[in-house]
């Protein structure tokens, strides 16, 4: 029934298998990609005709993780997969970027690639497998996909490169690099790194690229056996049309490019394009030409003018040389009530960044086929229409916004302090208030400054820079800090972020058939010089974290108690901890390991909550003195509440030095009396005395006149007990000087 064709290859001990002919046979190309126990169905379909009036290549890529792939049922009320998660959007972009440049430029048919995870093995990450499967599906299809790519992931553990590390291995890796390329060129790079050098990054790229070549050969072999004939296309426009437009518009395009302000320049270009349409109006009416042909030919001339000036005159649109950086302006603390803020401006690109510090309860819960986990560092990138002078609908973040935000997250995450050092959850929000290229890099620069302004002790300030490329045959020029036009009309957008010591993030997108390692090496060297310049400008405003956090940020206190005390702090049904939170407005998180995290806005409220918790976990000793409240009277004596959750018994003989007949004659319910612990019964209940308290304060007579008062706080002890009391004092460095060191440890974080 099926004519299934399968090819296999072993890559670093893991078998990669591609098969076609059994599943999804109505798709133009369909591949079942397997590695370990991960299985992905990758399909490619192109419409047979071009959509009317299309002016771009409409390629869409969808990566979807089915919960059943990991033996899970979707959470929430609707038990089915919903809209794409951030991870799915990011992997879709990862697949799209190396594929898009390899289609014939005249191919404008709507094309859709869908990669569905059917089985998930944590030892074999599915994003790399999805790129391989998508490439194979397109190679099998009739779509004019002109070359074949493969992909690999590279980790760095104990100074050794690891090929396609597992999810668990990546947690201990100094590098997470995804790379895709053809046999001869690198097409896409995306990475997070722990301050690695340019040399190490190049070695990792080369290591990963070499691993792609045998996979490409396997796909080529599969295509020979099962591939369909490729669609043959002619050029989008004739050379004569381009020459006509060049003669009509070249000088005017040069004049437009001399305008330095982006909006004015765009207006001049738009007016010139309309002039060209008017010139060819009759050809359009007679269907000798269509609008798309004129648009593409005009853009080709526009690109030719920009590229010629850079390649042959070493001059860019705004007059800069290739290695020059636009003017930079930096500010911090521009928003008074936020926990940290900055405004980073580079040329016409500007990012307003705000930091919010929270507690464990503010961490992001992530539900994926990798399992549920919490993320303490969140970064949101917002790109409003006004930033590019447009009035358009404001929608939820799309793939571009998610991708730019994740790139900035990768750049800043390696320099954040460990949770043990800084127990806050951290949210960074970057609103792009003006954009002319490199807005994600502005987010990184502004984010770094805002973190320092918020008092987050980052390991090093981070800056980002976007590098461009203009390449004609063997001649090329690398551009630092590219603008929007240089991105649109150039050949590469290579983003590099890091400190003075090393790189934390890379992302490369290209529009040509690949770049060599030589070009990448020169790009990284030039990017380092540019990154250093930007950091020096940032240092003039802020170069290290503030010593304290904002007064509006929550104060956090960490307490480590014995596990046996957890139930006392929580109370029956959570009553005790809830009452503390309500009375102090603090937040209290009690963990199963005995770690208690108390947070509140303001030190006073925090101290109130701390005192209440400490009274609960306090272990009384013989000789301790308290102000207690009479809670029950018996013939033989009275029960006294001497601590928040502790009662002790005072015998009638221990109430007064004088003989008394009835307890009720000297004590009433609610009386506050001074008591001392003289022992414990066999159940651990304290035996109390009133008559033998050293101090004369709060005698029986005074108790009668103060029955309306309540004070359960333990007071200072006499000088004779100062040595023992000092031994019980809690220290801010997380230790305790008494022998009960394992019972309680604490740490404070406040301004």
UniProtKB/TrEMBL annotation:
**Its GO biological process terms?**
mRNA catabolic process; RNA processing
Keywords recorded for this protein, A-Z:
Cytoplasm, Magnesium, Metal-binding, Nucleotidyltransferase, RNA-binding, Transferase
Compositional bias (Basic and acidic residues) at which positions? Answer: 704-728, 742-751
Ranges annotated as biased composition (Polar residues): 732-741
Q: What SMART domains is this protein classified in?
A: KH, S1
Q: Name one Pfam family in it.
A: RNase_PH_C
Span of domain S1 motif: 623-691
Q: Where is this region: Disordered?
A: 698-751
Task: Give a GO cellular-component term.
Answer: cytosol
Enzyme category, top tier: transferase
**InterPro entries, A to Z:** ExoRNase_PH_dom1 (IPR001247), ExoRNase_PH_dom2 (IPR015847), ExoRNase_PH_dom2_sf (IPR036345), KH_dom (IPR004087), KH_dom_type_1 (IPR004088), KH_dom_type_1_sf (IPR036612), NA-bd_OB-fold (IPR012340), PNPase (IPR012162)
Which family does the UniProt entry place this protein in? Belongs to the polyribonucleotide nucleotidyltransferase family.
In Swiss-Prot or TrEMBL terms, this protein is called polyribonucleotide nucleotidyltransferase
Which gene underlies this protein? Answer: pnp_0
């Amino acid at each position: 029934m099926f004519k299934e064709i399968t090819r296999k290859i072993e890559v670093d001990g893991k078998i990669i298998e591609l098969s076609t002919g059994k599943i999804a046979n109505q798709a133009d190309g369909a591949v079942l990609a397997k590695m370990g126990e991960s299985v992905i169905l990758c399909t490619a379909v192109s419409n047979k005709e071009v959509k009317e009036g299309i002016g771009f290549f409409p390629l869409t890529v969808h990566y979807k993780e089915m919960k059943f792939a990991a033996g899970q049922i979707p959470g929430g009320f609707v038990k089915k997969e919903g809209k794409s998660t951030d991870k799915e959007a990011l992997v879709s972009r990862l697949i799209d970027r190396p594929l898009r440049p390899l289609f014939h430029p005249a191919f404008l048919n709507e094309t859709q690639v869908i990669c569905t995870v059917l089985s998930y093995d944590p030892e074999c990450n599915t994003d790399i497998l999805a790129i391989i499967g998508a490439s194979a599906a397109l190679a099998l299809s009739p779509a004019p996909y002109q070359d074949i790519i493969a992909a690999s992931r590279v980790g760095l553990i104990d100074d050794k490169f690891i090929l396609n590390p597992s999810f668990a291995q990546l947690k201990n890796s100094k590098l997470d690099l995804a790379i895709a390329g053809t046999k001869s060129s690198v097409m896409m790079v995306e990475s997070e790194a722990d301050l690695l050098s340019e040399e190490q990054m190049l070695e990792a790229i080369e290591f990963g690229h070499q691993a792609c070549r045998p996979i490409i050969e396997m796909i080529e072999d599969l295509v020979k056996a099962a591939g369909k004939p490729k669609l043959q296309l002619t050029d989008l426009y004739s050379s004569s049309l381009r020459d006509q437009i060049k003669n009509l518009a070249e000088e005017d395009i040069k004049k437009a490019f001399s305008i330095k302000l982006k909006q004015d320049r765009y207006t001049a270009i738009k007016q010139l394009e309309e002039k060209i349409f008017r010139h060819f109006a009759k050809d359009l009416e007679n269907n000798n030409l269509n609008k798309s042909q004129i648009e593409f030919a005009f853009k080709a001339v526009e690109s030719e003018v920009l590229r010629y000036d850079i390649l042959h005159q070493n001059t860019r649109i705004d007059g800069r040389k290739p290695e020059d950086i636009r003017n930079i302006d930096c500010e911090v603390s521009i928003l008074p009530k936020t926990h940290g803020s900055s405004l980073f401006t580079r040329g016409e690109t500007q990012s307003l960044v705000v930091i919010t510090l929270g507690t464990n309860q503010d961490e992001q819960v992530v539900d994926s086929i990798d399992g549920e986990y919490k993320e303490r560092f969140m970064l949101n990138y917002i790109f409003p229409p006004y930033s590019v002078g447009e009035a358009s609908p404001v929608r939820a973040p799309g793939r571009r916004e998610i991708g730019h935000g994740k790139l900035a997250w990768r750049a800043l995450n390696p320099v954040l302090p460990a949770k043990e050092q800084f127990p806050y959850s951290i949210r960074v929000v970057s609103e792009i208030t003006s954009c002319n290229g490199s807005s994600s890099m502005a987010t990184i620069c502004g984010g770094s400054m805002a973190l320092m302004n918020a008092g987050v002790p980052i390991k090093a300030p981070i800056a980002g820079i976007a590098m461009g490329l203009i390449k004609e045959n063997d001649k090329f020029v690398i551009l630092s800090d590219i603008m929007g036009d240089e991105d649109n009309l150039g050949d590469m957008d290579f983003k590099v972020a890091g400190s003075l010591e090393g790189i934390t993030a890379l992302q490369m997108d290209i529009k040509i058939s690949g770049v060599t390692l030589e070009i990448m090496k020169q790009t990284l060297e030039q990017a380092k010089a540019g990154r250093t310049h930007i950091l020096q400008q940032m240092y003039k405003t802020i170069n290290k974290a503030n010593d304290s956090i904002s007064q509006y940020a929550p104060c956090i206190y960490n307490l480590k108690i014995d596990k046996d005390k957890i139930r006392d702090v929580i109370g029956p049904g959570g009553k005790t901890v809830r009452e503390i939170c309500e009375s102090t407005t603090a937040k209290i998180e009690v963990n199963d390991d005995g770690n208690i995290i108390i947070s509140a806005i303001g030190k006073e409220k925090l101290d109130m909550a701390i005192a209440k918790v400490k009274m609960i976990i306090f272990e009384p000793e013989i000789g301790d003195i308290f102000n207690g409240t009479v809670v029950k009277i018996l013939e033989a004596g009275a029960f006294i509440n001497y601590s928040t959750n502790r009662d002790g018994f005072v015998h009638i003989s221990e109430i007064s030095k004088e003989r008394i007949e009835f307890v009720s004659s000297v004590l009433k319910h609610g009386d506050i009396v001074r008591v001392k612990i003289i022992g414990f019964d066999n159940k651990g209940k304290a035996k109390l005395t009133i008559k033998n308290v050293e101090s004369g304060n709060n005698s029986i007579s005074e108790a009668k006149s103060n029955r309306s008062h309540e004070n359960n706080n333990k007071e200072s002890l006499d000088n004779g007990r100062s040595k023992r009391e000092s031994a019980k004092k809690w220290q801010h460095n997380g230790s305790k000087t008494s022998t009960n060191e394992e019972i309680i440890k604490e740490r404070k974080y406040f301004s």
